[in-house]
Amino acid sequence: MDEAAERHNAKMKKIKAARDRMMADKTDEKGLIVVHTGKGKGKSSSAFGMVMRCVGWGIPAAVVQFVKGDWETGEKRVIEERFPEVRLFVAGEGFTWETQDRDRDIAAARRGWDIAKEQIRDTRNGFVLLDEINIALRYDYLDIDEVVTFLLEEKPPMTHVVLTGRNAKPELIEAADLVTEMDLVKHPFRDGIKAQKGVEF
Amino acid sequence: MDEAAERHNAKMKKIKAARDRMMADKTDEKGLIVVHTGKGKGKSSSAFGMVMRCVGWGIPAAVVQFVKGDWETGEKRVIEERFPEVRLFVAGEGFTWETQDRDRDIAAARRGWDIAKEQIRDTRNGFVLLDEINIALRYDYLDIDEVVTFLLEEKPPMTHVVLTGRNAKPELIEAADLVTEMDLVKHPFRDGIKAQKGVEF
């Protein structure tokens, strides 16, 4: 086994140990670390569906958008207009393929993560969505070890945290309680159909 | 090839031909037939996230719930209290494992499908969600050919229809524009944690 693989295994083992410690303290109801990943649709929209459920049950929720820019999305509008009790923070402004400015993207990701930590620590929240944080983790704009350690050691026991985006890192999957991979079976773009309001954004 | 396989292939070919006819009439923007299936989480919640987007964009939407019973779910409450413009119909009352009454389940599924057809035909709707209809199709409470033929031949061109539930039939996948399979990578129930408000329902 080469050095990198050894390091990786040691790291995963450490995450597993931290996770086991966390689980040992738990009764049968607890706040979950939930990951939505994969190339298919529905990673963010199902997380927003969960926000909708929280509103229905009166569970205080916060959303930190790491990637979606300052353009209006359907979700943002609904949260602002219909769910005034949900705290919404937009950290990423365009990001990477729009800004082409790595330093600015890293600053936006760090800003998002600072807000995320604050919202997760705030025990008034029962649910915190970190939308598209996996993109920031993938490009190492945020440190995966820092994020995983925080989730396992500082997340209040009853708070659900949902992390979305493609290419979830193995460390995050190891730390999570519930991981869903959205796979694309069939997609209309291959037939030349444009992305559309309501369905795609 | 045995007779059943031949029949299956002929049927799939017919669906493909109907789909090709439908696509031939389309410009590059059209209402999609969307399927969310698989054993993972997020099939219904991402569809409800799409309902939320529609509300954000002012797209009139209707929801027909084929399985969820008369118990209160977070989504139902939010639709009733925050999204008065969304038409919500609950067709299934408990269903199968609750009612243990096949005739009653079939009647509920038929009632749901009649409402579904009416809502899809109503061109004021831009989005119609048939939540958990795949369960009714799987048990043959509804005829798959009737559903697929209706979608391909009678759905107004600009209306999106989303069909959710495990075990989507191959005929439906063939007819659909966009299919996402939600796969379960990791699930907390194996660790003895209960289903929880907000995350699971």
Automatic annotation (TrEMBL), chains A, B:
EC number: 2.5.1.17
Coiled-coil annotated residue ranges, if any: none
Any one GO biological process: cobalamin biosynthetic process
Keywords per UniProt: ATP-binding, Cobalamin biosynthesis, Cytoplasm, Nucleotide-binding, Porphyrin biosynthesis, Transferase
Substrates-to-products reaction catalysed: 2 cob(II)alamin + reduced [electron-transfer flavoprotein] + 2 ATP = 2 adenosylcob(III)alamin + 2 triphosphate + oxidized [electron-transfer flavoprotein] + 3 H(+); 2 cob(II)yrinate a,c diamide + reduced [electron-transfer flavoprotein] + 2 ATP = 2 adenosylcob(III)yrinate a,c-diamide + 2 triphosphate + oxidized [electron-transfer flavoprotein] + 3 H(+)
Superkingdom of this protein's organism: Bacteria
UniProt xrefs under Pfam families: CobA_CobO_BtuR
Subcellular location as annotated: Cytoplasm
Residue segments, region Disordered: 1-20
GO annotations of cellular component type: cytoplasm
Gene Ontology molecular-function annotations: ATP binding; corrinoid adenosyltransferase activity
Entries under Gene3D superfamilies matching the protein: P-loop containing nucleotide triphosphate hydrolases
InterPro entries, per database record: CblAdoTrfase_CobA, P-loop_NTPase
Pathway recorded for this protein: Cofactor biosynthesis; adenosylcobalamin biosynthesis; adenosylcobalamin from cob(II)yrinate a,c-diamide: step 2/7
Biological function: Required for both de novo synthesis of the corrin ring for the assimilation of exogenous corrinoids. Participates in the adenosylation of a variety of incomplete and complete corrinoids.
Family: Belongs to the Cob(I)alamin adenosyltransferase family.
Protein name as annotated: Corrinoid adenosyltransferase
Native organism: Palleronia marisminoris
Gene coding for it: cobO
